[in-house]
Amino acid sequence: MDADREFAGDCGARPDLPDWAQALVEDLSLRDGTPVTLRPIRPQDLPRHTRFVRGLSPHTGYMRLLSPRMPQPDELQRMTETDYPHALALVAIACVDGVQTEVGVARYAPSVDARAAARGSAEFAIVLADAWQSRGLARVLLSRLVEAARAAGVRELSDVTLHENAPMIGLARALGFTVQRDPHDARLTRLRKALAE
Predict the structure, then answer these.
(1) Residue 177 and residue 45: Cα distance in Å, rounded?
(2) Element (H or E) spanning 92, and its range?
(3) Helix, strand, coil % (nearest 5) of the chain?
(4) How many CB atoms lie within 10 A of CB 57?
(5) What is the pLDDT of residue 46?
(6) Is there a contact between 174 and 142 (Cβ–Cβ < 8 Å)?
(7) Strands across the sheet with 99-110, in order?
(8) Distance between CA 122 and CA 111 in Å, rounded?
(9) Looking only at Cα atoms, what is the longest distance across the chain?
(10) Positions in the chain whose pLDDT score sits under 50
(11) Which of 2, 124, 133, 165 sits 20 to 30 Å CA-CA off 62?
């Protein structure tokens, strides 16, 4: 069944989620009053998540991936198959034209650097659909990801973003991340937040 149509006509319906995921579900209202639900992603969300990623503008996709490439089907599938508590993706779901639609996602996963991963460091990422940017959703979504990562025992979150990505850098600063220009590549800025002493 197409995940976008799974609850068509019933935007209040809830998907089946394991107990750990139920604890991370949150209904909230954006600054303009628009209702949004945050919840962990599921493998069944693959069609919805694919549509979300394919719908990002070239600029937003470039800011997220640091390149113009489009994720391939196997990558998109892996994005929906997280291994909590080691990895987590929180999606923001809104009712759009009577259909539950993914409008944002924030995720963490163990660092690709084995030594950093052994220290409990994880890499994070966040991206919103273009029409849902500058509405307060990014701050809430990343805040909840930080809380969930801390509760899962992650000791540090880190990311690399383009130095020109002022909204991401501003959000990171607002949430207490350290912001440092990459000494080896002036195009990049490194973001870090310690979650445990």
Answers:
(1) 30
(2) strand 88-96
(3) 35, 30, 40
(4) 12
(5) 96
(6) no
(7) 26-29, 35-40, 88-96, 99-110, 121-128, 156-162, 188-194, 178-181
(8) 5
(9) 51
(10) 1-9
(11) 2
What domains appear along the chain, each with residue ranges and CATH number?
Answer: 3-155 (3.40.630.30)
Q: Cα 141 to the chain's mean position, in Å?
A: 7
pLDDT in tens, 168-192: 999 999 999 999 999 999 999 999 9
Q: What HEC string does 155-183 produce? A: CEEEEEEECCCHHHHHHHHHCCCEEEECC
How confident is the model at residue 197, as a pLDDT? Answer: 64
CA distance 38 to 195: 21
Indicate the DSSP class of residue 195.
Answer: -
Tell me the DSSP string of 28-72: EE-TT--EEEEEE--GGGHHHHHHHHHTS-HHHHHHHHSSS----
- Assess whether the previous peptide bond of 85 is cis (omega < 30° from 0): yes
The CA distance from 186 to 197, in Å, is 30
13 phi, psi to nearest 5 deg = -70, 150
Tokens standing for residue 85: 């508590």
Write down the pLDDT at residue 10: 66
> Strand 121-128 and strand 156-162: pairing?
parallel
